[in-house]
From TrEMBL:
Organism taxonomic ancestry: Eukaryota, Metazoa, Ecdysozoa, Nematoda, Chromadorea
SUPFAM superfamilies (UniProt xref): Invertebrate chitin-binding proteins
Domain of life of the organism encoding this protein: Eukaryota
Protein name per the record: Chitin-binding type-2 domain-containing protein
GO CC annotation, single: extracellular region
Segments forming domain Chitin-binding type-2: 15-71
MF terms in GO: chitin binding
Keywords (A to Z) from UniProt: Chitin-binding, Disulfide bond, Glycoprotein, Repeat, Signal
Length: 71
């Protein structure tokens, strides 16, 4: 009996880029996360359960304030 193996390709994460060197910015694909940028390096932060990142006020906010695309 001959066995073979195949490599599994890792799932690619979105290529995140900071819009500015420093600051807090919305995540481009996940409304429950945001990016904290320092020296142009994005650090992805996750909001607590049942909240979303409100880019207008730069904080995790209640879901009843979320846009329909995030609910």
């Amino acid at each position: 009996m001959k066995t073979t193996t195949s490599a599994v390709k890792p799932t690619r994460k979105p290529n995140l880029r900071c819009p500015e060197p420093y600051g807090i910015f919305e995540h481009p694909t996940d409304c429950h996360s945001f990016m904290h940028c320092a020296h142009n390096i994005p650090y992805v932060m996750r909001c607590p359960p049942t909240t979303f990142f409100n880019d207008e006020i730069k904080v995790c906010d209640h879901m009843w304030n979320a846009p329909n695309t995030c609910k």
